[in-house]
Give the backbone structure.
Amino acid sequence: MRGLERAMSPTQDTLPARMRAIAEAARDAARRLSHAPTAAKDQALRAGARAILARQDGILAANREDLAAARAAGQGAAYLDRLALDPRRLADIAASIEAVAALPDPIGEVTDSWRRPNGLLVKRVRIPLGVVLMVYEARPNVAAEAAALCVKSGNAAILRPGSDALRSSLALVAAFGEGLAAGGLPAAAAQVVPTPDREATFALLQLDDLIDLAIPRGGPSLIKAVAERSRVPVVKHYMGVCHLFLDATARVDQAVALALNGKVQRPGVCNALECLLVHRDAAPALLPAVGQALAGAGVELRCDPTALTILSRAGVKGVPAAPEDFGREFLDLVIAVRVVPDLDAAMDHIARFGSLHTESILTRDLESARRFEREVTASAVIINASTRFNDGGELGLGAEIGISTTKLHAFGPMGLNELTTRKFVVEGDGQTRA
Amino acid sequence: MRGLERAMSPTQDTLPARMRAIAEAARDAARRLSHAPTAAKDQALRAGARAILARQDGILAANREDLAAARAAGQGAAYLDRLALDPRRLADIAASIEAVAALPDPIGEVTDSWRRPNGLLVKRVRIPLGVVLMVYEARPNVAAEAAALCVKSGNAAILRPGSDALRSSLALVAAFGEGLAAGGLPAAAAQVVPTPDREATFALLQLDDLIDLAIPRGGPSLIKAVAERSRVPVVKHYMGVCHLFLDATARVDQAVALALNGKVQRPGVCNALECLLVHRDAAPALLPAVGQALAGAGVELRCDPTALTILSRAGVKGVPAAPEDFGREFLDLVIAVRVVPDLDAAMDHIARFGSLHTESILTRDLESARRFEREVTASAVIINASTRFNDGGELGLGAEIGISTTKLHAFGPMGLNELTTRKFVVEGDGQTRA
């Protein structure tokens, strides 16, 4: 609280000193949160969700100011839509905080335990990471949902919105903070960095003595800037260049269903399909039907020469792919298509062009499935299902804070457990080392 | 292999290009290693251990050159001892590689698995990290032992010795490479960076598209330099400012045993004891005996005023502590001593001055033990045993690659499991997302 007040007083201190005060307040809060009772955390979350609904008018007023400024700055409709709040979206935010409260508390779980020959009992016990810095862009709901996940997992959250979402984030987290007070938890458990100054982010990213993890969520340029300038460990939630390989034994109806669902259901997200690889032996049977379905849904097919020939013979429209269309995240109704000689060529393509996010195969051949599962590296390897399932909710983790494409610490959807680490606890009765 | 040849050809390419070639060769090797059969890996390790013994003369000759150069550069005796190899140390290295071969293979382990309502089977499967960069100083055994741990866990290792250990490391890893060939594994699974140029390290640390993890092992300045300049994720093996809190109920004989073992058995290591905290109520009973034992073992006691008074009354020699003696890693026969009013003060002291490495309590009080276990954050929290047990071998993890003081990914001793990550594998029969 002291840190936040200091940070909000622009006449005082330099920007790095203000950011350090925020991080110190977070660190102190984290120490208390680390062993807060589950009931106190859940009470705080539920009270926070109620306060967000009770403070709805003020939050929406702040959001209107953010929207007006963003509109004046010339932001487009899609951007404004991500920024906008309304009563329904606030109800969704409150519901997602309630859902986090209902999840089991990961802290204190003994994940392993064994006894040593000298009688020592060794346990590995789940503990919070400490202080988590969330750097995001326009979506104000990230503030409240990330704060809820952090508090439930015993971490203090520092929330760093894009400047367009600053007023909305401050208003949301102020309401959430009423909940923290109701649960007897420190207000600095969830702080919004109260300045639009871009340098604030980089000042925070120097504080590796106080901040344990930085999670950037947003476009590639944000993620790159954070990763390049951070001394704090970063878990990147990077782009998804997701492939579907249709093996020689793939069924036509399933190929159509998976391609459509992967590409069309929600093309703007990271687990959407960006490239179709088709086994040469099955391409004449599969590609016309799959291509027709995709084209019928308004998808542009950017094809290698073989795929283009097969499609054009079947009367399906495609265009020649440029070299840069492979390995590209379109996030749009566009897909790259390539015919490959075999499974090895498909896996070589994925190793070269994939982004470690989500890779899938459709096959009825046991050996193909086994090899794809074993040999493909990605946060999710999917056999005979849509790439769209690489999502914390769909995989059953509960709420997620994002999908990590960094192999270290967490790979794939990050739920509550991924906001924790484990310490060793050793219980003895006076043992010394020989 | 191609990468290594290019890197060793000084007439060709810039330093960054040569480092990229090494990292690309490692990445390609890692892809093959990631699903290499356990038997092939174990065969490679055992053959590598044999080759190190068979090539003993050449390795020792290279080591003599390293030693001569280090001696000429004015390095002290302790440094030269860390650098030196002899037949017995080579036998130890070979034995430790054999021991890694005998450990269970972590790769492919399904650590969790559940079925979703829509029939999808979700599994979390252990996979290698990919490419691991080990940056170390004088000890050439690190090269062979880190290479063995990496290969067993399916990772490719890039080994970056201090310039004084370069010839020894090259000779050791050349012999180890004969083993890789015998197991049918790629030579680039273990590469030594073949140049003493300091910039090579920083060039490698830029390659976050090719290298998955950097582990610096050495003094604080090395670790700081790596952490500050790396884009590759770093797991730090930083210093250990380890405390022992003697609670009001501590037994005198156990207090003496734990203090002596922690401080005297091997004072130069990171899990050695650096600071003794003593409960006020027990200080008159405990401190004279503990102080006498430590002083008798040649330990200098740097004390706060209360401790100094108690010790001098008992005729035990101490000196006043300077403020900077608290939070200091002496790595020597020196210990800081402080009397604290209660458990909370002890935990406050540890939160302020500890380095997250190893923290211990000696108590017979259940509530003190429980609170210390729950409220103290450190890679190992030890109740009624010596801090010296925070070690992979002692805790039963098998060989360790170091002790992480970074909370992310691995906290505490890093064994084979900590050189892996987990991917999600999703098995369906055509499911699409609604």
In short: Chain A has a mean pLDDT of 94. The radius of gyration of chain A is 24 Å. Chain A touches chain B through 69 residues (CB under 8 Å).
